[in-house]
Design goal:
about 375 residues; alpha+beta; three-stranded antiparallel sheet; disordered N terminus
Length: about 375
C-alpha cells in the first residue's frame, strides 16, 4: 500500500520519473564535488599562491587583493649551494666587473629543473654565468621563465641574510670588513655532531605527525648558536620541543626553532623574549628535554638539537594550519663552513659566549 502511487504510473511515466531522479542526483554530486575541489589545495612542488580579497571598511567597494606564497619546497643541493655561493663571494672579493647573486643563480636552476636539483649539470651553471659576464641581465635571461619570480622569492626567503657584508672581530680585538657567509652553523665550533636527512619522518608522541626539521645528534651541553641575527620571539617549555628558543629574522620571513635544550640549564645567561641576538651568539645548550606536559623532563631518547626554519610569507601562516617548514639537511652541511668559536665566559654558571664578535648591518639601529 505504501508504494501503490508508483504502481499506478504507466511504464512511460515510470521511466521519465526515474530519469528525473537520476539527473537530480548527478547534479547534486557534481555540485558537491566541484565545491570540494575548489576548497582543497594539493601540496606539490608547483607554485601555489593564495589570494584573499579584503576591504578597508564597509563604505569601500574596492577590494584589496593580497597575494602570498602558500607553499614552497627548499630543494637545493649542497653542491649547488657550494658552487653558487663561491661564484657570488668571489665576484665581490675579487671585484669582478659583473657581481653574481647566488640566489638568482639558484632560482634560475630551480626554474630550469622544475626545482629538482638531481638534474643539475655544471654546464648549465657555466652557460648562465657566461651570459651574465657577457652583459646579459638576469631579467632578460629569465623573461620567458614564468616561474622564475616564484622561485626567487622562495629561495630568497630562506637565504636572504646568509651572504653579505659584515665586520668580524680578530684575535687582536680589531674589526675587519668582509663579504661572505655571515650565517653560522647551529652547533658551536669544535663540538662534534651527526645528522641525516630526517625531514618528513614520522613522529608519534601526542599524535601521528611529520618531523619538520633536522636533528643534530651531539653531547649534552654543547653550545647552540644563533644561525642568523634576529629577535627572540619565544623562550620556555613546549611539551613537544621541551625547552626551546624561537628567533625571528628582522624581515619577519624566517622563524628559527631550536628545541630539546638541556635540563636545568637550557639557555645562555640572560636570554629573554624581545632580546636581539647576533648571528654566532650562544643562545642555549644541547639536551634531551621534551615529550612531556611536565616541565624540565628528559623524555627524548638521544641527546640532540632539533633545528627548524619556518617560512612566513604572510603572518597568518605563523600559527596557522598550513605552515611551511624547510628541509635543512643540505643547508646544515653548507653552514659547517662557518662555525662560531666559543669560550667559558662564566665559571660559576658554566656559561659560554662567542669568542669573536660580529658587526651585522642587518641589525636595526
Amino acid at each position: 500500500m505504501k508504494y501503490m502511487w508508483f504502481s499506478n504510473f504507466s511504464i512511460k511515466n515510470k521511466f521519465k520519473l526515474i530519469l528525473q531522479i537520476t539527473f537530480s542526483l548527478i547534479l547534486i554530486f557534481v555540485t558537491v564535488f566541484s565545491f570540494y575541489q575548489i576548497s582543497t589545495v594539493t601540496v606539490s612542488s608547483n607554485p601555489i599562491i593564495w589570494s584573499e580579497n579584503t576591504t578597508e571598511d564597509n563604505s569601500n567597494d574596492e577590494s584589496k587583493k593580497k597575494d602570498y606564497i602558500k607553499w614552497f619546497e627548499f630543494n637545493v643541493s649542497y653542491d649547488v649551494l657550494d658552487k653558487t655561493s663561491k661564484l657570488d663571494i668571489n665576484s665581490y672579493t675579487k671585484n669582478e666587473d659583473v657581481k653574481l647573486n647566488w640566489i638568482e643563480l639558484i632560482s634560475y636552476l630551480a626554474c630550469k629543473y622544475g626545482n629538482n636539483f638531481s638534474k643539475f649539470k655544471q654546464k648549465d651553471l657555466d652557460t648562465l654565468v657566461e651570459k651574465l659576464r657577457n652583459g646579459e641581465s638576469m631579467s632578460d635571461i629569465t623573461k620567458n621563465m614564468k616561474n622564475y619570480n616564484y622561485y626567487y622569492e622562495g629561495y630568497d626567503s630562506v637565504l636572504h641574510e646568509f651572504i653579505g657584508d659584515y665586520q668580524i672581530e680578530t684575535s687582536d680585538k680589531q674589526f675587519v670588513e668582509k663579504y661572505g657567509i655571515k650565517a653560522f652553523h647551529p652547533i658551536a665550533k669544535n663540538y662534534s655532531y651527526s645528522h641525516y636527512d630526517d625531514f618528513g619522518a614520522s613522529r608519534s608522541y601526542g599524535y601521528k605527525r611529520l618531523h619538520f626539521g633536522n636533528d643534530l645528534m651531539g653531547s649534552i651541553g654543547s653550545p647552540v648558536i644563533a644561525v642568523e641575527s634576529g629577535i627572540v620571539e619565544a623562550v620556555g617549555w613546549n611539551q613537544y620541543g621541551g625547552w626551546r628558543v624561537g628567533i625571528r629574522s628582522f624581515d619577519k620571513k624566517r622563524y628559527y626553532y631550536y628545541a630539546h635544550l638541556r635540563k636545568n640549564h637550557p639557555y645562555a645567561e640572560g636570554l629573554k623574549e624581545g632580546q636581539i641576538v647576533k648571528a654566532g651568539d650562544v643562545i642555549g645548550y644541547l639536551g634531551m628535554t621534551g615529550y612531556s606536559t611536565k616541565e624540565n623532563v628528559n623524555n627524548i631518547n638521544v641527546p640532540h638539537l632539533h633545528f627548524g626554519i619556518q617560512l612566513i610569507f604572510d603572518e597568518v601562516q605563523k600559527e596557522g594550519p598550513n605552515q611551511i617548514w624547510v628541509d635543512l639537511y643540505h643547508l646544515v652541511d653548507f653552514l659547517n663552513k662557518n662555525r662560531s668559536e666559543v669560550y667559558k665566559s662564566n665559571t660559576e654558571t658554566k656559561d659560554y659566549s662567542r669568542k669573536y664578535d660580529i658587526i651585522d648591518p642587518s641589525i636595526p639601529e
